[in-house]
User: Which sequence fits this backbone?
């Protein structure tokens, strides 16, 4: 969980980011990771412009796989740049259970989580 003074808490999962693998830079843009998304989009366009033949599908697949592996880390990096602070690790089977577990331990966050 990441906290900011003037925003709702953000829960970022650990593990493979399937959305980043499938949607690439647009997944990063959806999570407001502007720098990482822009660099990924630029890398995608550079691969398409500079390579030909059988090379570009392999490079794009490698980029997509890397985004799947490190997508959540890029999101956390973007949160840290925006002033969010890593506060808690919450173990839960899904996001809703994690949020409920968080609010049970930190009732002071109920107002921020509702926003």
Assistant:
């Amino acid at each position: 969980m990441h906290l900011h003074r003037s925003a709702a808490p953000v829960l970022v999962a650990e593990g493979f980011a399937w959305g980043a693998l499938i949607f690439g830079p647009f997944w990063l843009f959806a999570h407001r990771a502007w720098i990482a998304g822009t660099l990924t989009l630029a890398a995608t366009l550079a691969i398409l412009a500079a390579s030909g033949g059988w090379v570009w599908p392999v490079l794009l697949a490698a980029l997509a796989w890397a985004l799947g592996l490190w997508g959540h880390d890029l999101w956390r990096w973007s949160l840290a740049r925006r002033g969010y602070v890593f506060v808690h690790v919450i173990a839960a089977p899904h996001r809703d259970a994690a949020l409920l577990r968080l609010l049970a331990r930190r009732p002071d966050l109920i107002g921020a989580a509702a926003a």
The mean pLDDT is 90. Residues 2-114 form one domain. The chain has six helices and three strands.
